Amino acid sequence: MNVFQFIVQNRSEVVELTLEHLWMVAASTLLAVLVGIPLGVLITRWPGLNKLVLGSANIIQTIPSLALFGFLLPVPWIGARSERLAILALTLYALLPLIRNTYAGIKGVDASVLEAGRAMGMTGRQLLFQVELPLALGVIIAGVRVATVISVGLATIAAAIGAGGLGEYIFRGLAMVNNQLILAGAIPASALALLADASLGWLEKRLSPG
Prior knowledge:
By secondary structure, the chain is an all-alpha fold. The chain has nine helices and no strands.
């Protein structure tokens, strides 16, 4: 029996694990967007915070995922449930591309456009929401795209702490030295990453200024 026959025969379990995987990715990406984009905007207004914010996000990226799970385990409420712990860890990993792309997108807005807005009497808030963010949206979506693909891959490791997802098959396959089980988790996870990348890539092109 090959891996595709295995997936068909166990489709209900595959669907369940895929939905768990999608839930972790969607929740962590949403949280990262809600935190990362405002932080990216903040460091365009307060350049002195640039090194602190981007440096902290860079440091988080260097921490091995299993080690980060271990660091977060003693945290009250978060460590009580593996799903919460996994979502928080994925959120932290997704912050860097969102902060960096938001910052780069806003900083990349043509200075003459901003000057024209100021000449029309626009306030800093109006410039941000009506000029800078709309023009930077394509770059920001590119950050969301990178963050989502990262989360899809890292979510497989969440199975190591019992958070579920397609990583369950991968770890089960490693324990049993069964390539079929490993591929049963790896192939759907790869398909999700490719689908997310293609979908957000299309959205990025649509929202990028001509």
